[in-house]
Write a structure and sequence with these properties.
- The complex is a heterodimer of chains A (about 300) and B (about 180).
- With about 300 residues, chain A is α/β, with parallel strands linked by helices.
- In chain A, helix 5 links the parallel strand 5 and strand 6.
- The model of chain A has no long low-confidence stretch (mean pLDDT about 95).
- With about 180 residues, chain B is an alpha+beta fold.
- Chain B has 3 helices and 11 strands; from the N terminus they run E-H-E-E-E-E-E-H-E-H-E-E-E-E.
- The longest helix of chain B is centred in the first third of the chain and has 12 residues.
- Chain B starts with 18 loop residues before the first strand and ends in a 10-residue tail after the last strand.
- Classes of the chains: A alpha/beta (about 300), B alpha+beta (about 180).
- Chains A and B meet through helix 2, helix 3, helix 6 and strand 7 of A and strand 4, helix 2 and strand 10 of B.
- Strand 7 of chain A pairs antiparallel with strand 4 of chain B, so a sheet runs across the interface.
- Chain B: One of its GO terms (biological process) is methylation.
- Chain B: This is RNA-binding PUA-like domain of methyltransferase RsmF.
């Protein structure tokens, strides 16, 4: 927990934050509406005696009272998919529509990509890309299990991604769920902070900046880009969006999500960020008893 | 792979890329490739899945006889990792649908669907073979299904032969429920 001390000045009720980070997280699943409606999924869980609690902000997210969420009929049928509650936030903020062209540029293992497809009624095109070939097999497995037929899977570095292979040359929306230092996953993975260093943060921030810039370039004017990470470090969050504001045509826009969160930062250490970064969301573990997440919504401008 | 089978007017399948299936056998340019018409007819003939179920989908081949169903946009040919889901194996004596296809589209089927009671459904999902003497339908590939939340829900593909239902649920998809 030592690395988290640096956030004492920015986190409200820091002791509650530390306590929450030390508590393990239960099983959460997302209902995959490609395979079954919310009502039918709940009925199937009831029928097999699996208890659940529905998230107030999103009826498709459930906290399951079982130690083996993968050994349920709903999981076998792809009605449900194990996905941390906050990890279901970025696709909701991106809000893709049926028929659109959407890019998930860091997609493996596919929880969010399949969530995007489900929100589009599996109509349109979701290009799910990942640079790691090993993780692509998990992405493919999940996509087929969840019955997503609108997904195209590519294996490339998002930073210099080419659309030449497709029949279209820009996306309507793009999700950048960037590789990060994963501080916010400490409740799920107690080893998350083992390799923590400021050097690691600064090197991953460089990659994040490259990916977000390419995402904005590949999205049409008026289109939407959502940038998210599961970490608290401002260098990987506000500073990356700030870099995008300085180098690409885009602006930070508001969004509504029925979860408690803190606004994005406008300063950190000696850095100052654009005021609009207050429109981003910092979701801390003690806010909603979840993992930690950062989400910013951008509109691509001329 | 016989050398004597090389065609004179058609190409060989390139297993590394996605090629959209020709509409009809007459439009075939690749030796041995199934057409969209044949694929849709197969699902209709075998499982009585109405052909219009697939109106918004395209069918593709990547790998020898591996057929994919896709709802998105794409040029043909295309060299990427995956589009949509694998749905059918052709280029063998009996075409074989995938378990993922059965789960996604099997609810439209009204033929060759065998309903399994609870214990049998679990054994099927776990990949076990089981005796099944009451089935008086066709031999060959069937859709195993069970009652779940008020509807019949497809579990996967089984092979029915000699009074035995063999689960074709792939290893990675099998579960002890």
């Amino acid at each position: 927990m030592e690395p988290l001390e640096r956030y004492r000045p920015i986190v409200d009720d820091f002791e509650a934050f530390l306590e929450a980070c030390a508590r393990p997280l239960g099983s959460a699943v997302r209902i995959n509406t490609i395979k079954a409606s919310v009502d039918r999924t709940l009925e199937a869980l009831d029928e097999h005696g699996v208890a659940y609690e529905q998230a107030a902000w999103n009826p498709r997210v459930l906290r399951l009272e079982t130690d083996s969420p993968g050994s349920t009929w709903t999981s076998f049928h792809g009605f449900t998919h194990g996905q941390e509650e906050v990890s279901a936030v970025p696709p909701v903020v991106l809000d893709p529509q049926p028929g659109e062209r959407v890019w998930d540029c860091c997609a493996a293992p596919g929880g969010k990509a399949t969530q995007l497809a489900a929100r589009m009624d599996d109509r349109g095109t979701v290009v799910a890309n990942d640079s790691n070939l090993g993780r692509i097999s998990a992405l493919r497995f999940n996509a087929e299990r969840l019955g997503a037929t609108s997904l195209a899977v590519t294996n490339d570095d998002a930073r210099n991604y080419s659309l030449e292979r497709f029949t279209f040359d820009e996306f309507d929306r793009t999700l950048v769920d960037a590789p990060c230092s994963c501080e916010g996953t400490i409740r799920k993975n107690p080893d998350a902070l083992d390799n923590w260093s400021e050097g690691q943060i600064s090197s991953v921030a460089g990659i994040q900046k490259g990916i977000l810039r390419r995402a904005i370039q590949a999205t049409r004017e008026g289109g939407t880009v959502v940038y998210s990470t599961c970490t608290f470090a401002p260098e990987e969050n506000e500073a990356v969006v700030q870099h995008a504001l300085e180098t690409e045509s885009c602006r930070v826009v508001d969004f509504d999500i029925g979860l408690e969160y803190a606004p994005g930062l406008t300063e950190w250490d000696d850095e100052e960020y654009d005021e609009s970064l207050e429109r981003a969301a910092r979701i801390y573990p003690h806010h909603n008893d979840t993992g930690g997440f950062f989400v910013a919504k951008l509109e691509v401008s001329a | 792979m016989g050398e004597d089978s090389s065609p004179t007017e058609t190409e060989q399948n390139d297993g590394q890329r996605f090629d959209r299936l020709p509409e009809t056998p007459d439009e075939r340019t690749v030796e041995g490739r199934a057409s969209r018409e044949e694929v849709v007819e197969y699902f209709d003939d075998r499982f009585e899945i109405p052909p219009e179920t697939f109106d918004d989908y395209t069918f593709w081949e990547k790998g020898a006889g591996k057929i994919w169903i896709y709802a998105g946009e794409s040029p043909s040919p295309l060299e990427i990792e995956a589009i949509g889901m694998t749905c059918l194996r052709t280029r063998q004596e009996h075409w074989k649908p995938t378990t993922d296809f059965a789960q996604r589209f099997g609810r439209h089927a009204s033929s060759c669907v065998v309903e399994l009671e609870d214990d049998r459904a679990k054994r099927f999902a776990a990949g076990e073979d089981q005796d099944l003497e009451r089935w008086d339908g066709d031999w060959g590939y069937l859709i195993g299904a069970h009652e779940l939340a008020g509807e019949l829900e497809p579990i996967g593909i089984g092979l029915y032969v000699h009074g035995e239902l063999r689960s074709m649920v792939p290893k990675g998809r099998q579960r002890e429920l």
